[in-house]
């Protein structure tokens, strides 16, 4: 509320939502107050919603090192300022003439979305013009499907991003206060987006009875999707069984709601059924809750019990009634301020950290989710009806609820749903280079190599069949190859062979990050493998945003200084210097030198991950490790691109000396191997043998082995750029606000677009244009990337790329048109 004038009706701004409610009550006509405030029947469910939140007890946590808390979250691919949106409520114009436009402005200022009711008092176009955060449309399905269809089409045309189907209203509940008051809407309060025909909307309950379709079933979800091509959430789910059915019917999200106690009186409080529903949903789609949220700490309580976000209902109307847009903004600011307070005092750094550990043992909701599952089939020993042991997600490590660990699920699901798409999503090698017999030749060659080196049959058998040395058995060959290809001079003892570079990241983070105040800096956008590993290990991450032309080392230094100022220790910086995943950018030689100087100045380690160099055309810049004179760089290597990914062989070069208090010394690689012995014991010998055979076949020179693939990927990149240029000549792309970078190699490039490139857009791209890509926002540890796309071209043939970019161009044009910009056709305006 800082800087905002105090809403009139009191000498100071209200300090709680309760005070807002009280001020609203004194300003509103008593019948209008009853209409918004009341519930169905004896209002037992209405009361239960609030009482359930009153019972929540949160555990204060101290000295957690959490620092500034970040309440932002990502729902359906869009960043929200906090896990809060405005619930759909009819006729905001009853509270203030500006109605929903005031609400949309207030919510947008806080970065919060609004779910706009079917019965909004202002038109979708007016609301969209006022909004700066996502808008969703709440849909009541009418008996007349054409009316519903038109409603959705208008919302979609105005840029609404999702549909929220309300399913708890086959008829409206008996709201005794309205019946007693014989409540009628004043003549000027009308639904601005429904046909202005003879329909009498003045009595919501009567219109509800005649207008709403009472016979809906689960097939309505597919119908809605076919009309709007938008994600569909289902609002009004109150049981685990219905949640499972909703997901099976294709719902993209679920809102646990009893309509604010306005429908079935006697239904339980939403918070009381949340944990059980969260267990059934199991993270498969966003889970929201409404009903009774009246303080910031209620938001945190709902997250702790498994919600991804909440909807706030009546309090927003109270704010509007008190002071229009300023009042609604005051309400939302208050909730966000209370949420930040609750996060700080419970040591909850981000919403991903909000889990059941926040609840005290006395919390009555905590043990509430004991759904009975059928006994596992075929387990004869189990008693016939013994319930399977069900685990609650909230009781698992918080990382399993971190969206970063789930990043690719939506993409996989889309690929499954639209099998005929051209996919610019996967960062996979081109499969035509794999020969099914070559793998056997590799293993044979390695065995011959061992024999030629004097190994006995027995020693060879042991090497192939037994547990092997934890640090790996092909370290000598890797050393030779690094010398030949990368100018890296590392003793075999400084190398640990890992299960992919991914294990290398996990081991390295585990060894280096010992103190809660240690922070990992990452170039952002960032490969999700490193942020995922950091999440598993609860390592705090500080993103350093890459600029359009790549990383600026001054930004890394600013991040180091900012973390120091907060009392934390920047320990290491993770970077993909060559043809980065996801952006495609490459650091210049000068930037590499500056980064090494900065690392020395600030006692920072560098984690260098560079898997695309050896499969990229042309001469590569030196690795950071090759330029490293002070052993500041830990080099993470991978053979997934340069040999083949199924081997899952990677390595870490960790030549940093480690000294213990007695003065004895080892290398960091020795310490990583100790950790590895408790993770994967050793990298499978068969895989090492196959990679070793491939290294032997080319005398360690993977650049030579990969000359043909590198040419192919270079060609794929060239064709992708050529096709983009063809569809969007320079003046056209400038006018449209589209742009892309021109990587010199690798598998990826970044396309900047003038519209939100989120899951909803991806769904339209797949459904309408049969092409998919990855929203760049997936790769941002914090906000960012909302208007960029990662295109991966490595997996496709030139003909597929040509076809795919054609479809992609059609998608971009359609999307830009959708946002209201005009789209010039190439040729006509060049
Ligand atoms: C005045 C009023 C109008 C409402 N109109 C709608 C509506 O049009 N569509 C809908 O799905 N829910 C509607 N709801 C229910 C809300 O979306 C939400 O479920 C409920 O208000 C949340 O509870 P809370 O008010 O306790 O926060 C309405 C609620 C109120 C109070």
Automatic annotation (TrEMBL):
Query: What cofactor requirement does the entry state?
Result: FMN
User: Domain of life of the organism in this record?
Assistant: Bacteria
Q: Name one GO molecular function term.
A: transaminase activity
The record's listing under Pfam families reads: Aminotran_1_2, FMN_dh
The record places domain FMN hydroxy acid dehydrogenase at: 9-364
Key word Transferase present: yes
- InterPro entries membership: Alpha-hydoxy_acid_DH_FMN, Aminotransferase_I/II_large, FMN-dep_DH, FMN_HAD, FMN_hydac_DH_AS
User: Which keywords does UniProt give here?
Assistant: Aminotransferase, Flavoprotein, FMN, Oxidoreductase, Transferase
- Quote the protein name from its UniProt record: Aminotransferase class I/II-fold pyridoxal phosphate-dependent enzyme
Species: Streptomyces niphimycinicus
